[in-house]
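Quick note —
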Amino acid sequence: MVTYHNNGERWYRREWSAVQWLRNWVIWCGGWEKANGLGWEIFNSRGKLKDIAPLSLFGHRFIHYGWGWQIRLGDRGILTRNTREGTLYLSSNGAPSQASAWFMGAPEEVTGAVPISRAA
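Predicted structure written out below.
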């Protein structure tokens, strides 16, 4: 199967079998796989196991990073959990500056801007 992709700088041609393409869509081990499916690099130069992250499942719908994870929710945006900072938010592009909703760890610029309403 021949597909064409743009990496942001140029177009390139990728020749993968349907099995390679399907495996890459189901699970992609970004920390271990070389670019364009040209092999694996599981150990570093000192023989130690490399970090598998980023690890992507189902066509990048779920991605685990070393700092947390993201789930793509279609038109609703990207749900991001940063375990290092203790945050959980929904944003259009995965960036906290574009968050439309905060569920955990909202920054002071958000919490300070929202008046507290109390039940009567």
